[in-house]
Amino acid sequence: MHVEVFPVKYKELENDSITKNSLEIKKDVNFAKEIQAERYRKESIVFNSQLKPSQIRKYCKLGAEEKRLMEEAFHKLGLSARAYNRIIKLSRTIADLAGSEHIETEHLAEAIQYRNLDRKFWNL
Hints:
This protein is an all-alpha fold. It has one domain. Helices cover 64% and strands 0% of the residues. It is globular, with a radius of gyration of 16 Å. The mean pLDDT is 88. InterPro entries: CHLI-like, Mg_chelat-rel_C, P-loop_NTPase. It holds the Pfam family Mg_chelatase_C.
């Protein structure tokens, strides 16, 4: 996964908006890891990244809106089956970080965005 980072403007540094610090982010990540450990306790895996295609179908079910979005992305971006599975696994992780039991459209859209960024800079 790659994330495009833009330069910070001075006014943004002076902004008093609340952002998460690294300890809060670490707490979120550890919580997501606990969710995954519990979800896969009867499997031979621990993390979403280890999911095999049959496990993706079991643990990463998409709703109608999410299926529509994924199909559109699949065709517009010319995704392979491997890319499709990677996006689904990443969206499951994004949902876990958000504390969501289900993969929502926003989680899937974020994962697709990261894949699109890969294609932009690395032609993957």
